[in-house]
Amino acid sequence: MFKAVRITVLLFILLLVAVNTWLAQARSTDWNNSLWVKIYPINGDGSQASDNYIKTLEPDDFDAIESFITREASRYGKSVHRPVRIELGRQVKDQPPEIEQASGVFGVMFWSLKMRWWASRTADAQDDIDPDVRIFVRYHDPEQQFALENSVGLQKGMVGVVNAYASRRRTGSNNVIIAHEFLHTLGATDKYDPADGQPIAPDGLAEPDRRPLYPQRLAEIMGGRIALAENDAVIPKGLRFAVIGPLTANEIRLLD
Fold it and tell me: Does pLDDT of 44 surpass 70?
């Protein structure tokens, strides 16, 4: 009897979590109210340069993301004032859990659960009211010779981890990556080839009907790059060079 009661309670808790997750995801893309997005900076490489940069961060460093979402939502007929409101949190000292590259499906699922638990535990100390979306930005010294790890955005839990450069010159491109991962939390999918980062035509291109097709002048935000040629692309310097394409708009319910 006790075992049956325990299983029933656990199933009820799981049902509540599932319903709350579904409601949060549905509300995040109804475009009737502002979404509260909070950004938490992290020193990703332990360098003094990253620490110094984080101390200079201000909320208006991320205004371009708000303006981008407002502009694109309006382009698709959504009239909500400030569809995204960004707040800058305090620096987080802990590092997010790492994912093994060859972990397989179950490894990724387990990492996703750990990531969501870590995000909630880490941020709760400074969140009197939980934001709708949490984005943890790990800053790295741009003078060091290394390749940044891939960033990630999770729809379940609505949490993202962005690897960025601790440089004022990189503010624009950092915001492109943050916006990309933020849209992942709303249900948008990647539209580039993971093997080489090249945007996949037509949905990964900002101007799929352009003739000649290349070079493109803008980036589709989930394509991630401006395609200069069939095998050459660059990350845009800022969100003024990016758009939300129709398929992405449909995925995040900007298209009715």
Answer: yes
Phi then psi for residue 153, to 5 deg, are -135, 130
DSSP the chain: -HHHHHHHHHHHHHHHHHHHHHHHHHHHTS-SS-EEEEEEEEESS--HHHHHHHHH--GGGGHHHHHHHHHHHHHTT---SSSEEEEE-PPB-SPPPP--TT-HHHHHHHHHHHHHHHHHHHHGGG-SS--SEEEEEEEE-TTS--PPPPPEEETTTTEEEEEEES-GGGHHHHHHHHHHHHHHHTT----B-TTT-PBPTTTTBS-TT-SS--S-SSEETTT-SEEEETTEEE--SSGGGEE--HHHHHHTT---
Per-domain residue ranges of the chain: 31-187, 189-256
pLDDT at 16: 47
Residue pLDDT, tens place only, 100-110? 655 666 777 78
Q: How far apart are CA 157 and CA 21, in angstroms?
A: 7
User: Topology of 31-187 in CATH?
Assistant: Collagenase (Catalytic Domain) (3.40.390)
Structure-block tokens of residue 98 = 């790492």
Identity of the amino acid at 162: V
Q: How far apart are the C-alpha atoms of 254 and 79, rounded to whole Å? A: 11
